[in-house]
Specification:
six-stranded parallel sheet, 7 helices, alpha/beta
Length: 220
Amino acid sequence: RFGGHAQYVCVRANAAIAPKPRNMTFAEAVAVVSGGFTAQSFLDRTAIYAGTTVLVNGASGAVGTAAIQLAKQLGANVTAVSSSGNHDLVRALGADRVIDYEATDFTTQNRTYDVIMDCVGNAPFHRVSRSLSTNGTLLLVIADLKSILGAARTSHSTGKLISVAAVKYTSEALQRLVIHAELGRLRPVIDRMYGLSDIQQAHRYVEAGHKKGTVVLELP
C-alpha cells in the first residue's frame, strides 16, 4: 500500500479506472493523471468561477502545472509562484501573473487571493493568512502534522477554509481528466523519462526538487 514500481499491476474490477485519452500517448496520459488528479481534487473543494483570484505556490511541478490549467478553465485569474527559469512555462500554461519566489515573498505583497494552493509545503496558514481574502481558501496539497491536526479548528475560528484532506480516486474524477485532455484543456508537462531499470536515478532527480511537471517511467 506504500506503492512501488513494476511492469504490471492487478487492480479490482471496481477500481478507479478510465480509458486513456485518445489523443495522447501512454506517457502523456500518465503525466496528466500524475498531478492532474490531485489538482482537480483540491480545486473541487472550493468555489472557483470567473474572476476568482487563485495563487499556486510551486506552480511548475506536477500538481502546479495542472492546477494552473484547471483553474483557468474555471475562469480564475491565476498567479503562479515559481523560479524565474520556469516563468515562460507557467505563462504558456495560462498564468496571468508570475512571482519569482527567489526574489519576492508573495506573503509580503499587498495582495490578497480568494484561493491559495500550496504545492510545496512552505505556506502554512500562519504564514499566508494575511494573503487570503475574507472567507478565502487555503488548499494544502503538502502539509506538516501541525497543519493537518489544526485545519478544522483554524477553519472554524477564522472563517477561512483550510483543506488538507487526502485525495480519493474515483472513476468519475478520472474520466473528467480524460475529457479535459481530449478537448485540449489540460496538457501534460513531462520533464524527463527514465527506464524502469533507472528508477534510482529517477528518484534522485525528483527528490532534488527542480523538476518541471512530471518525470515518467518507460516500461519494457
